Amino acid sequence: MDTNIFPRLIWQWGPVQITDTLALSVVLTLVLGCCGWVLTRNLKLDPGPLQAALEGSVLAMENAVRDLVPQHVSQVAPFIMGLWWFLLAANLIGLIPGLESPTRDLSITSALAFLVFLSVPWFGIRSHGLKGYLSHYVKPFPFLLPFHIVGEITRTVALAVRLFGNMMSLDLVALIFLLLAGFLVPVPILMLHLVEALVQAYIFGMLALVYIAGGIQSQTRREFTQ
Amino acid sequence: MELNWSTFALEIINFLVLVWLLKRFLYLPVRRTVEHRRQEIEARLADAERLKQEAEAMKTRYERRLADWEQEKRQAWEALHREMEAERQRQLAALSKELAEARKKAEVVWEQEKREWRRQTEEQAMALGTKFIARMLERLADEHLHKRLLELLLEDLTRWPEGDIETLRRAARSVSGGARVISAFPLTDQERRRLESALRDLLDAPIECRFDTDSALLAGLRVDLGAYVIRANLKDELKFFSHHG
After folding, report:
1. Is residue B235 within 8 Å of residue B218, measured between CB atoms?
2. Has residue A3 been placed in a domain?
3. B142 falls in which pLDDT band (50, 70, 90)?
4. Does B16 sit within 8 Å of A55, measured CB to CB?
């Protein structure tokens, strides 16, 4: 096991730096895209086991989105589905010997959290318009505006740090066990890594969905109340 | 650990590319397939619903037809019962008519038999009565009765019906040898003269009488004028009585 758990710079051109976590993220993007293309290349009305599993997973994610934002499923579902698929792959890829989870990099998790942060006003504005969305920051009282802004920033930071901290801590604990106890001792920790990877991917995606739904439905709820 | 802004920015681009790839190559194809399947299922359900409605309509039509058949069968049964009842009434009427005719015929036969029986009974009674009376009159027959019958004859000759007088006279003219007088007892001369006188007055012509005696007459006498016979004796009266009584 590699004892360097922090991102390594593998290529640099001017201000552009390519780390191993970013490279692995790009690889995961390509792999997921290729898998999607291959699996959906020959979809049939009478599905086989693989197609049934694929359709089941997609429909399960879509249903989760539909439960919270039933009127914007087609808009929100691809983003949430991308988060879940990417985080699932990124978290679990650390179990493969020689590979590290990209989500142990704060830059990666921050980028994802920032996208979630941006997606909230993006879907809110697409749903209710700019004025309608921004008006919820000063309602019910204008003095709640700073609290709304601080809340959105802190939850975004918490989103990024939570995923980064959990994934980094797992790798760090495994490394510490490896250094102190020796070979094969970190295996239980790796099993914990498996569970943690699934849980963190689910939490990140679900929190993102809740935030987006909150941005859409807070305006809807006020319109309904008024 | 520090935030690498280059990684941060490139990861944003990378993830947006991933979202586009997944939407383009995974989400939308799966959605289209599921939607297509849903439409296929809805089409099949619609077909099944249409077939069900057609089956229900057919069932309703068949049930209506069965009801019509049932009603037609009931009407046919009722018509058959009416015809059977009419036929039964007709046969009953015919039978009643035949019975009435048979009864009438039997009554006629019975009346005839009764009349025949009554006639035979009357004949038998008459014969018995005649026999009885004859036996009794035979015992009563004597000369006094003979004279009494002669007196009755003489009295009747004076009151003879006008319609028969001419017939009597023609019979008297056609006979040759005069009248023959047969009496149960011998007549006296006076009686003979009185009789001849009465006959002469009746016939309005002279007539010759020959007098004989026949005790078989029991009492009285018989005047034979050829085709015409005047009977005033007990035997002829009893015979007449037995025949016409």
Report:
1. yes
2. no
3. confident
4. no
Among chain A residues, the shortest Cα distance to B38 is held by A45
**Predicted ipTM?**
0.90
* Cross-chain residue pair B33–A79, CB shorter than 8 Å: no
**Residue A4 maps to a domain:** no
Q: How far is B33 from chain A (nearest CA, A)?
A: 7
∠ CA B28-B33-B39, nearest 5°, is 120
Sign of the dihedral defined by the CA atoms of residues B147, B152, B155, B160, in that order? negative
Query: Are A108 and B27 within 8 A, CB to CB?
Result: no
Residues of B with CB below 8 A from A115's CB?
A: 12, 15-16
**B35 at interface of A, judged by CB pairs closer than 8 A:** no
Taking the alpha carbons of A162, A166, A168, A173 in that order, is the dihedral positive or negative? positive
The answer to whether residue A2 is domain-embedded is: no
A16 touches chain B (CB under 8 A): yes
Q: How far apart (Å, rounded) are the C-alpha atoms in residues A111 and A22? A: 11
Is A55 an 8 Å CB contact of chain B?
Answer: yes
In terms of Cα–Cα distance, which of A202, A186, A31, A20 is closest to A100?
A20
User: What pLDDT does residue B17 have?
Assistant: 95
A38-73 tens-digit pLDDT: 999 888 888 889 999 999 999 999 999 999 998 889
Domain carrying residue A209: 9-225
The total number of structural domains in chain A stands at 1
Are the beta carbons of B8 and A17 separated by less than 8 Å? no
Whether residues B7 and A58 touch (CB distance < 8 A) is answered with no
For chain B, the domains span: 76-140, 142-244
The answer to whether residue A1 sits within a structural domain is no
Among the listed residues B245, B174, B179, B184, the one whose alpha carbon sits nearest the alpha carbon of residue B218 = B184
* Structure tokens given for B136: 């009794």
